[in-house]
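User: Before I run my own analysis I want an independent prediction to cross-check against. Here's the chain; please return only the structure tokens and, at the end, one sentence I can use as a sanity check.
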Amino acid sequence: MATTDSARFFPYDAPYENQREAIERIENGLARGQDVLFEGACGTGKTLSALVPALSQARETDKTVVITTNVHQQMRQFVEEARAITREEAIRAVVFKGKASMCHIDVGYEECQVLRDTTRDLAESEVDRAQLERKQDELLEESQAGDQGAAEARSAVMDELESVDEEVSDLREEPTCEHYYNNLMEDTDDFYQWLFSDVRTPDDVYEYAEREGFCGYELLKEGMEGVDLVVCNYHHLLDPMIREQFFRWLDRDPEDVICVFDEAHNIEDAARDHATRTLTENTIDSALDECEDSDDPRSEDAFAVFAAFRRALVSTYEDSLGFSDRGSVDENWEDVAIANESGRDDLTLAFLEEYTGRGIDRDLKSALEFGEELDDQYEEAYRNGQAQTRAECQTLQAAAFVEGWLDDGAALDQYPVLGVRRDEGSDEVYGRAELYTCIPREVAESLFSSVHASVLMSATLRPFDVLEDVLGLEEPIEMAYGLEFPEENRRTFAVETPALFSSEREDPDTQETITRVIEDAIRMTPGNSLMFFPSYYEAERYYGRVETTATPYLDRPGVGAEDLREEFADSENGALFTSLWGTLTEGVSFDADDAHTVLVVGVPYPHLDERMDAVQEAYQSIYGDSNPDAGWEYAVEIPTIRKTRQALGRVLRSPEEFGVRALVDKRYTQTAEREMGKYSVRGAFPAEERRELIDIAPEKLQFSMLNFYGDHDAYDESPEPRLDR
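Assistant: Structure tokens:
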């Protein structure tokens, strides 16, 4: 191990050999303040490999470890590992979620903030009143004993007490939060003793707080100071504003924090989402109403800007939508093309044409000043009990967005988008302007450059140089560990079916070939089989085509998959059909007999729309000098292969397990490297994974699987191959 005693944080008998090496390398890197890129095959103990040295270094150097994920299943895994550690070495850990999931009275963020401030004012005033009452009682006794000075002092105290009484009475009339009031006024020592006696989940905290009448969210915030470990969601670190608050709750400067990112291949998309800005037509309408209701002369300037932007927004999507297109708009946002090769986008050009004010810069400045003052008025009205809810200032939101649209809309990494949707059951279509962030580096780099060090871990991080580029990492340590489990316990096939290009998927012969391969794989599997497809549509297609004696399960979009996963895992002969872009691809384990065979059917490229084109163009512009295919590789191919590798990793989670993994598409084969050029994807896999890929004809897969599972004595009764080829 490394120079500090990290072994005390390892909760089991002994680490795997790879774990031991990874722990030492990570701890040495963290000691030097270096970031670490850590790829480890599924089931090889990445969580402890990162968490153990991070906790060791944090204990040695008085830092806090923040481990974060965007996968709920993984958060539960972190809790279990942290609980195991506490049984060996005492640590103070907090598992943190957003306010919305922990609020007992279901109010928004800004309303909660005002409630909290008013409640604190009330509690402080009541404490002051109690102190003054005690003081006047003491002075009364002294004055009754003949102390004239005490009598005069008591008179002054009584005057002050009367004033505080009025203040308390006024505050009692304002909206407050009873749960937070109890936090401030009652003894919370028992809560914190309970909290740190184990690792508690947010649900545990919510139930305790609900039972005792506390606000669990605020108690967690107050209790985070000085903890060893925090488990949280991505947005606590990737959103710059939330991150600043989060570190303040920890009472830590960024350089006193060690970050561990799980499923770190998702950081790119998550950072992009957190940087994206939007403004809906409804928000503009609300801002216009605010302007019309105000006598402030600056409201006229704001109105001129918002009205022009709204007219431009509506005319742009009306011109782009034909009658048939308009009829197909549903409750989901749908992009409308506004890109313009001649320069600024169509919406900006329409806005500049519609605007007739005295100067956009001047009017925007007035709009921002007016919005800030109006926002202060809303808070004061709520605080004083003049409003039942804390209104959000739509003028401030609209002005800030339009300013950003004009300043950043032409930037390479900001892609202007116009979207349309309609509310369910409504005939009215409305629009939304959006600045979509193409390059996540600006968001991620500020985080990684400010904290002490980070560990980015996943089963699918490579190629490392691409990740370094897109996230802005400076000379990180790179380490990758493949499956160290016995190679004889697995087979990985590249099945030479027709390449499932989108144009070929409707071909009847192709569909028949794919159907036969899936049926063969299910029949030859002693137990459960997993099938991943490029989309839910394709999953449902083959769910309907495949004939099998196994119990079929279909994962559907928008439907919670956890119950389905458990039902499938409990079956003895099941076949689960799902999308590779669904929730069962990562952060979900199919251990032991939960599943033995996994198929990835086709190359699951994401939907290639204008946003993806913009991302490709941005990457190509930045990295194209050194790599002529940088746009396609960075934006499309590498994320797709990472997803594919994640799917393959759903099985084989321990050295004792055995199973078959099959990539069903000619593009995965060695033949494709020679014959299909850039359409081949085999070269995008790490070298050691390519070496394990065995090219096989579709009709031969069943025999190879029969031999493999037969060698492992997996059959009670060997299935018969189908020979009608």
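Sanity check: The first helix runs from residue 17 to 31.
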